[in-house]
Q: What sequence folds into this?
C-alpha cells in the first residue's frame, strides 16, 4: 500500500485537496538539500506574519463583539437594568447572532491564514512533496497540521504507535481535537460573560475581549506554525541519516538490520504518537534495508545484541535512535530513557542537555550531522538526571 494511503487511509476532502495543492506547488527537484539560512529566515517571517495577522483578527473580532454589546445594551436596550428574561431575550438573540457571524468570519480568516502560511513554509523549505510516496505522506501530514487534524490511529510498518496508550485516553484525545476550536472559544466567552462580569472589572469586559481574543488566536496559530516547521525540517534530518549510514546496506548483516528496525519501532511506540516524521523514518529505513514485511516488534529480546556489536554498528544504531528522538513535536520522556539505556548498553552515556539543544537546533533549521549526533553522547556512563 502506498505510504500516503497507509498514513492517511480516509482523508477528508479538505485534507486531500490541500495536500494536492501542496504537492503541485512544492519543489519538484530530485535533491534533498537542506534549506539555507536565508530559507529558514523566510520560514520564520512567514510564521511571524501568520501569528501577527491572527492576533489582529482577534483584536478586530473582540472589538466588534465588545462594541456591539455596548451599543445594544446602552443604545438599543437602554442599559438593560431591571429587565426580565422575557424582555431581555431579543437582546441576547441579537447579540449572539451578531457574535456568531463575527466569530465565523474570524475562524474562516484564521484557516485561510494558516493554510497560506503552511503552504509558504513548505515552499521555502523546498521539500519535494510530489517526488515519491514518502513525500506524499509528508504532504498529507502538512495538510493535517494546517487543519489541526490529529495524527491518525494507524499502524506504521506493522507497528501500532498507540499500543501503550489506553483506549480512554485515545477517546479523550480525539474528542479534544474535534471540539478544540469551538470549546476553547466558548470557554473564553463564558469567562468574559460569567466570571469577569461578576468582578470589579465588569465595565471593562468589552474592552478586554479584543486583547484576549488576540492572545488566543496568536497562541493557536503559533502552535500550528511550529508544528508545520518541524514537519518540513524534520525529514531533512531523516534524509541526512539515511545518506550517512544507509547508502550501502550490503555491509549491514541480518542481525544488525533486525536491531535497527526494532530500535526505530520501539522509539516510535515510546513517542506514543503516529507523528509523520516517525512514519517517514520507518518507511525510509524499510526501503533502504529491503524490508517488505511487517515488523514484529520485540525490543526486549533484540536489544541484547547491542553490547556485542562493533563500534561502527553501535554508532549507526545510536544515531538512528537519536534522530528518532529529535524529529517529533517534542522529546518524550520514554524516548529519552530508551536512548539512555541504549547508550549504556553500548558503553557510552547520554548528554540530555546536548540532546535538548540539538532538538532546538533542528527547529532553527540547522543540519543534523553525524558529528552533532555524536556530541550528544559522552564516555562517562554514570546515570544522568533525565
A:
Amino acid at each position: 500500500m502506498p505510504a500516503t494511503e497507509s498514513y492517511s487511509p480516509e482523508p477528508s476532502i479538505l485534507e486531500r485537496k490541500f495536500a494536492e495543492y501542496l504537492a503541485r506547488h512544492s519543489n519538484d527537484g530530485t535533491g534533498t538539500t537542506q534549506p539555507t539560512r536565508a530559507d529558514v529566515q523566510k520560514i520564520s517571517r512567514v510564521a511571524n506574519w501568520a501569528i501577527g495577522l491572527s492576533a489582529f483578527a482577534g483584536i478586530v473580532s473582540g472589538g466588534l463583539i465588545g462594541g456591539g454589546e455596548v451599543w445594544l445594551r446602552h443604545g438599543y436596550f437602554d442599559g438593560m437594568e431591571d429587565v426580565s428574561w422575557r424582555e431581555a431575550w431579543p437582546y441576547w438573540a441579537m447579540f449572539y447572532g451578531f457574535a456568531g457571524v463575527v466569530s465565523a468570519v474570524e475562524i474562516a480568516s484564521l484557516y485561510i491564514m494558516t493554510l497560506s502560511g503552511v503552504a509558504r513554509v513548505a515552499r521555502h523549505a523546498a521539500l519535494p512533496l510530489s517526488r515519491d510516496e514518502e513525500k506524499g505522506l509528508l504532504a498529507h501530514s502538512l495538510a493535517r497540521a494546517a487543519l489541526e487534524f490529529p495524527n491518525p490511529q494507524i499502524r506504521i510498518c506493522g507497528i501500532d504507535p498507540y499500543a501503550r496508550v489506553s483506549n480512554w485516553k485515545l477517546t479523550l484525545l480525539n474528542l479534544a481535537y474535534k471540539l478544540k476550536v469551538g470549546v476553547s472559544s466558548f470557554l473564553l466567552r463564558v469567562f468574559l460573560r460569567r466570571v469577569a462580569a461578576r468582578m470589579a472589572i465588569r465595565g471593562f469586559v468589552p474592552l478586554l475581549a479584543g486583547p484576549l481574543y488576540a492572545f488566543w488566536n496568536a497562541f493557536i496559530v503559533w502552535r500550528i506554525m511550529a508544528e508545520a516547521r518541524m514537519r518540513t525540517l524534520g525529514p531533512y534530518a531523516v534524509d541526512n541519516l539515511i545518506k550517512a549510514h544507509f547508502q550501502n546496506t550490503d555491509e549491514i548483516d541480518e542481525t544488525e538490520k533486525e536491531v535497527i528496525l526494532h530500535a526505530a519501532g520501539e522509539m516510535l511506540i515510546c513517542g506514543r504518537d503516529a507523528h509523520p516524521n516517525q512514519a517517514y523514518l520507518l518507511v525510509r529505513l524499510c526501503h533502504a534495508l529491503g524490508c517488505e514485511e511487517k515488523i514484529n516488534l520485540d525490543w526486549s529480546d533484540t536489544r541484547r545484541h547491542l553490547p556485542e556489536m562493533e563500534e561502527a554498528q553501535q554508532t549507526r544504531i545510536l544515531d538512528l535512535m537519536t534522530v528518532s528522538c529529535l524529529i517529533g513535536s517534542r522529546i518524550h520522556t520514554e524516548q529519552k530513557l530508551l536512548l539512555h539505556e541504549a547508550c549504556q548498553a553500548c558503553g557510552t552515556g547520554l548528554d540530555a542537555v546536548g540532546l535538548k539543544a540539538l532538538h532546538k537546533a533542528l527547529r532553527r533549521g540547522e543540519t543534523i550531522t553525524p558529528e552533532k549526533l555524536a556530541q550528544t553522547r559522552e564516555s562517562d556512563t554514570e546515570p544522568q538526571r533525565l
Observations:
- The two ends are 39 Å apart (CA to CA).
- The beta strands are 349-350, 377-378.
- Residues 85-125 form the longest helix (41 residues).
- The chain is about 70% helix and 0% strand.
